């Protein structure tokens, strides 16, 4: 089933209308229209925000230092760049946009409700500001790629040093797993790699130099934040325990269990995972949601956790079990005849309200809250993006253009309902290993 966004549908209809004076859709196939103001009102109601958290005490000194670095990079780029400074209008706009995004991330950090959210905002701000600062220095002072080589090598050396002393220590295995997953994300994944070659822009250009400067800064902040989180974790431990064998064993057992449960999906048509005998679900939010939920758990795609770093693999395990349970649950609702077809703004409100209630219930669940919130943070972000999509201009909107957003509410609700039980399962596997 092909997904078509509302904006894509608008563009397609506009193109069709331009090709012919006739209505490209006959009256029988035109979906009903809803009052756009009523749809906007649905999304205007408050929704839960779930800030990102990490179960480690992030120091105020580290936050202050990374903020100073972000602001110094931002200040290195003139706030007003005109034709006199940068004659090339396209390059000028790229630098302006990067500087603006960096300033926005710094503003977002002031509103962040958790230290980890501030850390994330500062990291993004530093990368954006470094791109602008690097490109500006290339224009204003002749900075080259070779000038960045020494800094890049220093970051690589710091990364190697951290990896050499890093151990999977912790007290509570669930909270330690989340902290080590954040460290892995910064120094095991590609985030801290420095290739030294621009990919978005041509080598030797000011934007190419800015891109390399951004890459170096992303790696630098990744290593600095990982080292800080690790040091704060180890400082909190009276008797550090090596949890790596426990993580690896839990990863193995959960992966085996997941593969067994995936076998139940063998009867699902991977091309049309929404198709159920006796239920006409095509072109409904339920069909879109089932397709979205099936893709990550499709048995024909081998997502082998054994190739992943041990802590990150367990976050994948959690997400995979959540999605599998969500797919089963939603498919059972569809089997019973529920398609969540949209015929009024009230129908949109119903699926959104269900998603909000499911998120709040998951947040209130006592089942390993650190692990549950690791999942619900992303779900709340998805809900917020769907709300933003419902900010529709004009007086009316076709229900077909709302299908993707309604499907997002359905997947958020299904995943949120599944999350607490999966958190208990993954936590039990870790503590029993």
Automatic annotation (TrEMBL):
PROSITE patterns per UniProt: PROKAR_LIPOPROTEIN, TAT
InterPro entries: TAT_signal
Name this polypeptide is given: DUF885 family protein
Upper taxonomic lineage: Archaea, Methanobacteriati, Methanobacteriota, Stenosarchaea group, Halobacteria
């Amino acid at each position: 089933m092909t997904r078509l966004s509302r904006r894509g549908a608008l563009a397609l209809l506009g193109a069709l209308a331009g090709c012919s004076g006739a209505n490209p859709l006959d009256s029988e196939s035109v979906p009903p229209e809803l009052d756009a103001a009523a749809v906007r009102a649905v999304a205007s109601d408050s929704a839960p925000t779930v800030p990102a958290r990490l179960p480690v005490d992030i120091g105020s000194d580290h936050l202050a230092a990374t903020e100073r670095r972000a602001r110094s990079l931002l200040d290195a780029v003139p706030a007003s760049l005109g034709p006199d400074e940068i004659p090339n209008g396209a390059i000028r706009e790229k630098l302006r946009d990067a500087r603006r995004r960096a300033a926005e991330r710094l503003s977002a950090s002031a509103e962040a409700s958790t230290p980890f959210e501030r850390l994330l905002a500062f990291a993004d701000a530093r990368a954006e500001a470094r791109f602008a600062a690097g490109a500006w220095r290339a224009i204003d002072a002749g900075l080259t790629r070779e000038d960045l080589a020494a800094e890049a090598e220093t970051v690589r050396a710091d990364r190697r040093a951290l990896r050499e002393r890093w151990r999977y220590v912790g007290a509570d295995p669930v909270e330690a797993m989340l902290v080590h997953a954040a460290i892995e994300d910064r120094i095991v994944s590609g985030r801290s790699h420095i290739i030294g070659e621009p990919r978005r822009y041509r080598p030797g250009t000011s934007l190419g130099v800015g891109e390399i400067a951004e890459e170096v800064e992303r790696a630098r902040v990744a290593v600095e934040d990982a080292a800080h989180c690790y040091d704060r974790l180890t400082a909190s431990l009276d008797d550090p325990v090596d949890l790596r064998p426990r993580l690896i064993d839990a990863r193995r057992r959960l992966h085996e269990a997941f593969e067994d449960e995936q076998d139940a999906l063998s009867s699902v048509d991977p091309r049309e995972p929404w198709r159920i005998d006796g239920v006409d679900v095509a072109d409904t939010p339920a069909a879109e949601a089932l397709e979205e939920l099936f893709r990550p758990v499709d048995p024909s795609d081998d997502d082998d956790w054994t190739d992943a770093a041990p802590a990150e693999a367990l976050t994948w395990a959690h997400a995979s079990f959540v999605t599998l349970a969500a797919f089963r649950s939603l498919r059972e609702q569809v089997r019973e005849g529920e398609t969540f077809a949209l015929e009024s703004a009230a129908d949109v409100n119903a699926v959104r309200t269900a998603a909000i209630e499911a998120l709040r219930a998951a947040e209130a669940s006592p089942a390993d809250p650190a692990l549950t919130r690791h999942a619900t943070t992303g779900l709340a972000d998805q809900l917020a993006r769907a709300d933003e999509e419902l900010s529709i201009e004009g007086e009316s909107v076709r229900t077909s253009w709302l299908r993707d957003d309604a499907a997002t509410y359905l997947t958020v609700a299904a995943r949120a309902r599944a999350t607490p039980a999966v958190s208990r399962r993954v936590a039990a596997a870790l503590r029993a290993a």
